[in-house]
Amino acid sequence: MAPQSITQKFRLDGKSYLVTGGAMGIGFHITKDIAESGGNVAVLDLRDEPREDVYGLAKKFNVKVGYHQCDVSKQESLKAAFDKAVESLGRVDGIVTAAGLAIDKPFVDQKWEEVEKVIQVNAMGSFYAAQLTVQQIQKQGTLGSVVFIASITAHCNLPGYRMAGYNVSKGGVKMLSKVLSSELGPKGIRVNSISPAFIDTNQTRGAKEHTTKAAAELMDSAPPLLRIGQPDEVSPAAVFLLSDAAAYVTGADILVSGGIHTGRGGDYDMV
Question: What start-end ranges are recorded for coiled-coil regions in this protein (predicted)?
Answer without folding.
Answer: none
